[in-house]
Amino acid sequence: MGFKVAFLGLGVMGYPMAGHLAKAGHEVTVYNRSSAKAEKWVSQHGGKMASTPEQAATGQDFVFACVGNDDDLRQICTGINGAFHGMKPGAVFIDHTTASAKIARELFEHAKDAGFGFIDAPVSGGQAGAENGQLTVMCGGTHADFDQSKDVIAAFAKAVTLMGESGSGQLTKMVNQVCIAGLLQGLSEALKFGMNAGLDVNKALEVIGKGAAQSWQMDNRGKTMVEGKFDFGFAVDWMRKDLSLVLEEARRNGSQLPVTALVDQFYAEVQGMGGQRWDTSSLIKRL
Question: Is 173 considered catalytic here?
Answer without folding.
Answer: yes
